[in-house]
UniProtKB/TrEMBL annotation:
Source organism (scientific name): Nitrosomonas nitrosa
Keywords: Glycosyltransferase, Transferase
Repeat keyword on record: no
Record-given protein name: Predicted phosphoribosyltransferase
Domain Phosphoribosyltransferase: 7-188
Xref: CDD domains: PRTases_typeI
GO MF, any single term: glycosyltransferase activity
């Protein structure tokens, strides 16, 4: 169990130390991973930015991911999605809802600049943990299309079957813990508070001051 996101980020940075001073692009999946990615970017002397993806929530349980969508509208739907959702109109409506949230977040998080370009760079994608892996898969898929030199998925915790699903989308996976018994990401942190939009905006602003 990790004390908090700060401890998890510090441990991840140690595991990623081979990329120190190689100017990696460290991308957080908002919101929980942004404070972690800032720590990692600082320790590796890289750049911080976000990659916007959203999970598609199940009809009766929005916290359970039946898939995910990136900013372009590309959608990841695992096989079980069609067993849970019988009406394809639900998926289209949910996708459009999540795209609208991403558009709003993009306008708030990085209002005066476009996303940093991953082309030709070492790209490290951070989340505070994976359950189904759906959002990470969407993030890695979106970034692969932008031709990074190397694409790394770095997380503190994920179940083994999720790591197997994600593996084909990344060049390297760094995961600190992979327990068989897994119910939610939050169970592996003593302190796991929500990260607010305001915190994300402030973290990105201070990163821009350091790198631009």
């Amino acid at each position: 169990m990790f004390r908090d996101r700060k401890e998890a980020a510090t441990l991840l940075a140690e595991r990623l130390n081979s990329y120190h001073k190689q100017h990696p692009l460290v991308l957080a999946i908002p919101r929980g991973a942004v404070p972690m990615a800032k720590i990692i970017a600082e320790k590796l002397e890289g750049d911080l930015d976000i990659v916007l993806v959203r999970k598609l929530g199940a009809p009766d349980n929005p916290e359970f991911a039946i898939g995910s969508v990136d900013e372009t509208g590309w959608t990841y739907l695992p096989e079980y999605a069609h067993q849970i959702v019988k009406d394809p109109r639900y998926i289209e409506i949910e996708k459009n809802n999540q795209l609208e949230i991403m558009r709003e977040r993009r306008s708030r998080y990085t209002p005066v600049r476009p996303p940093l370009d991953p082309k030709g760079r070492i790209v490290i994608v951070i989340d505070d943990g994976l359950a189904t892996g759906a959002t990470m898969i969407a993030a890695l898929h979106a970034l692969r299309a932008k031709q990074p030199q190397k694409l790394i998925c770095a997380i503190p915790v994920a179940p083994p079957e999720t790591l197997s699903k994600v593996a084909s989308y990344a060049d390297e996976i760094v995961c600190l813990e992979s327990p068989e018994s897994f119910y939610s990401v939050g169970q592996f942190y003593r302190s796991f508070p929500q990260v607010s939009d305001e915190e994300v905006i402030e973290l990105l602003k201070t990163a821009e001051c350091n790198h631009f």
